[in-house]
Amino acid sequence: MIAAEPPNLPSGDSPDLILVPATASERIASIRLNSVAWKGPLDVETYIQRENHLLQQRLTRDGLTCWVLVDRREAEDSRTILSSCESYRKSALLARDGRVEKVSTHGVGSVYCRPEFRGKGYAKRMLEELSVKLETWGMEKEERRRSVFTVLFSDIGKKFYAQFGWRPFVSSHMSLKATGTGSGGMGVTRDLFAEDVQKCLCSEVVLDKLRDQMLVASRESGSAKIAILPNFDHFVWHWAREEFYAENLMPEREPPVVKGAGDDRARVYCAWNRNFGETPEDNVLYILRWVYDEPTSPAEEEVVVTAMAAILRRAQQEAHEWNMSKVEFWNPTPLLQKAVALVDPRVELVHREKDSISCLRWTGEEQGLGKDVEWWLNEKYTWC
Ligand SMILES: CC(C)(COP(=O)(O)OP(=O)(O)OC[C@H]1O[C@@H](n2cnc3c(N)ncnc32)[C@H](O)[C@@H]1OP(=O)(O)O)[C@@H](O)C(=O)NCCC(=O)NCCS
């Protein structure tokens, strides 16, 4: 399976190739293979433990499928893995014509082909088959029995996945350097622990508000709107990842407990996680999601922007405390960009061309939902 390099590899368009869910041992074999690309500072065995730990999280334990492209003539558990990836089922909202529905979607990740098998069309074949399979995979209990969209985050630019229907969406970010200096007179924020994030960013009230906003927007413009539901499970998954790294790489230190920051008066909140890379330069504190009410007057706007700036300062400090090089957040709104300008006017919006390109495959048109779709809350929490 993992060691085999058959003398005659099948061609990428061979009718003998099939895309199937991996058996338990094939899943481990595929993790071992892709460890070359993604284990980062962990050794292979610890990387496998990380993957098993993440699989047990609420977000993924029922909805994760590890897919392998194999030759149908080979026996289960001893098949040569030609290419592999994962899909994660998630809850989402779909709004169109004054109606909001809860739907399911899939995120695709860990697309991989071992170096010696590359360029033979295996990843392409896998994605061609996967794109179709995910339209109905795990959708038995759905009212529509089909997905209307799936997403992935490409690290290899905008073209490769587009050929299978995953179109690139806006993929921008801003970063601020980590800093050990104080709040700079920018107001006092409250540290958020896990339960605070649940209350301030994931409560029924917050999710209902999102639903209402999507409803109103769907009455105002014709195109469908989707959002991956920013439920607490997402945050817990990201934190399971950061805590796993922290425990393994910094065993002498208590795992990180500050999971975000907020300002109760301005009602602005964010949740973050720490991403540990191979070098301190690769360590990034990502803001996973922001929650605030759209201001209705210039005075309200000032309150919100000032609070965001103070929260960003707090994030910079937290990044510094954890030996991260920077704080980063995806697709900042104009208000958040104003707040960044208060913290550091030199910072610019970056449009990514290669890494973490948010891509969405829309199949709603065939279901009468129109040609276009707007992706709401295209923030880092959606990444898997
Ligand atoms: C990307 C990857 C899965 C492609 O696997 P593969 O089986 O060699 O791909 P295929 O033979 O089916 O397709 C080759 C195509 O992929 C494109 N491709 C491969 N690597 C690429 C890269 N880093 N950037 C852009 N395109 C790339 C090639 O340009 C080629 O396109 P062409 O047919 O138009 O010439 C493989 O190179 C890999 O595992 N890379 C490391 C992990 C990774 O980056 N995964 C993607 C995460 S989003």
If you had to describe this structure to a student in words, what would you say it looks like?
This is N-acetyltransferase domain-containing protein. With 384 residues, this protein is α+β, with helices and mostly antiparallel strands. It has two domains: 181 residues, Aminopeptidase (3-Layer(aba) Sandwich); 115 residues, Aminopeptidase (3-Layer(aba) Sandwich). 30% of the residues lie in helices and 26% in strands. It is built from eight helices and 16 strands. Strands 1, 2, 3, 4, 5, 6, 9, 15 and 16 form a nine-stranded mixed sheet that branches. Helix 3 links the parallel strand 4 and strand 5. Helix 1 crosses helix 2 and helix 7 packs across helix 8. The longest helix is centred in the last third of the chain and has 24 residues. The radius of gyration is 22 Å and the shape is globular. The structure holds coenzyme A. The site of coenzyme A has 18 residues, from strand 4 and helix 3.
